[in-house]
From TrEMBL:
One of its GO terms (molecular function) is 1-phosphatidylinositol-4-phosphate 5-kinase activity. GO terms for cellular component: plasma membrane. The chain crosses the membrane at residues 30-48. This is SAICAR synthase-like protein. Keywords: ATP-binding, Kinase, Membrane, Nucleotide-binding, Transferase, Transmembrane, Transmembrane helix. It comes from Parathielavia appendiculata. Residues 271-297 are annotated as: Disordered. Gene3D superfamilies: 2-Layer Sandwich, Phosphatidylinositol Phosphate Kinase II Beta. Residues 1-365 form the PIPK domain.
């Protein structure tokens, strides 16, 4: 079994295990000793536990209408066994070294948080405000995080950092893509959007000549088009963005992104002006749907009838007050003494990042009143 499979197995076990299953393989002192020995010397299959499981379970059950059975079923194989086979590795993505997995039913994504500054910020600073906020803002664009998993105790793998010690489980904004492909529809497009006016060393030092194209391709995308919306659609979109980013700025978060998904809207061939069949784009039995569609989570039809869009705010785990962020800010300030490139998206202030982020979001929207 390879590294990715072993990491996946530890994630799945943490999600679906029961109290009975915990004790089944460690009966007696010898069994317990062997289990502890195996866990300590494991390189990849760390012992993971849910962090504040009651808070996430409350969100899932009472606000997102996800039953415990439906949630855990997504992490089981077709045979009903809990194993790594129920997670599909998407690969290593981004500069943070994060690993991504998708459940086989495509409802949930699992992202690792390998940096201490990231998972400590979320668990110690942002988790309580996030839980309270998501319970009172059903139309929030912040990605719905369904669980936080953290390593329990020390092991060789955790010490050597051969496997991530923390992971988040979040709903998949791209859920339904495979179903759409099976129906023969055009593939969905997606963009990971951040303000591009910041200093990016990979792009801006020596005109990017010192960095590979593969590395530069992992920088923030640019959306060279417009989301055409009615006034009320745009107002709803901007109101959610304002409220969500206010929460993030209040807790010193920067460098988050807007994940934008675009699908071609179904057309009616017998009319001169195409009419979108918005409801047909919502997958059957999608995860954590409330409120009812249309929303930016399930799909909002552009007023020109051409596209259906989804949007979500992701990656809000970089906080200015953490040691890693302070060190990066110090380095960039030293650099700017000579070269005056300005701040990076990870070294600017939360209020300044929020301002540029909102400006970017407004720039990709075109309002057409009836």
């Amino acid at each position: 079994m390879g590294r990715q499979e072993k990491i996946a197995r530890s994630i799945v076990h943490a999600i679906v295990k029961t109290n009975g299953a915990n004790n089944k393989h460690s009966s007696g002192p010898l069994g317990l000793l062997l289990a502890l020995f195996s866990a300590f010397f494991s390189l990849y299959q760390l012992v993971l536990c849910k962090v504040r499981p009651a808070d996430f379970a409350n969100l899932r059950r009472n606000y997102w209408d996800v039953s415990d059975d439906d949630y855990t079923t997504s992490f089981r194989t077709d045979e009903g066994r809990a194993g790594g086979e129920s997670l599909k590795a998407i690969g290593d993505m981004g500069f943070s070294g994060s690993t991504f997995y998708s459940t086989t039913d495509q409802k949930y994504l699992v992202k690792s948080l390998p940096r201490h500054s990231e998972h400590s910020f979320f668990s110690e600073d942002l988790l309580t405000p996030y839980v309270e906020y998501m319970a009172t803002h059903p139309r929030s664009l912040l990605v719905r995080i369904c669980d936080l998993l953290g390593a329990s105790g020390w092991s060789v793998g955790r010490i050597l950092r051969s496997a991530p010690s923390h992971h988040i489980v979040m709903d998949n904004v791209m859920y339904g893509r495979e179903e759409a492909k099976r129906r023969g529809e055009a593939d969905w497009e997606n963009w990971d959007l951040k303000p591009t006016s910041y200093f990016y060393p990979e792009r801006d030092i020596a005109g990017g000549a010192l960095t590979s194209e593969a590395t530069k391709s992992r920088l923030a995308d640019e959306f060279h088009d417009k989301i055409v919306l009615r006034r009320e659609q745009a107002d709803d979109f901007f109101a959610s963005l304002e409220a969500d980013t206010k929460l993030l700025a209040e807790h010193n978060a920067v460098d988050y992104s807007l994940f934008l998904v675009r699908m071609s809207a179904p057309q009616q061939a017998d009319t001169a002006m195409p009419t979108p069949a918005e409801s047909s784009m919502v997958p059957t039995n999608p995860p954590s749907v409330p409120p009812s569609p249309p929303t930016w989570r399930t799909g909002v039809t552009s007023t020109d009838g051409k596209y259906i869009f989804r949007a979500s705010i992701l990656d809000f785990f970089w906080a200015k007050h953490k040691v890693h962020a302070k060190f990066m800010t110090f380095l960039i300030n030293l650099w700017n003494v000579l070269f005056k490139h300005g701040p990076m998206s990870i070294t600017t202030t939360p209020d300044e990042y929020r301002e540029r982020f909102l400006k970017m979001c407004r720039s990709i929207v075109e309002i057409k009143d009836d």
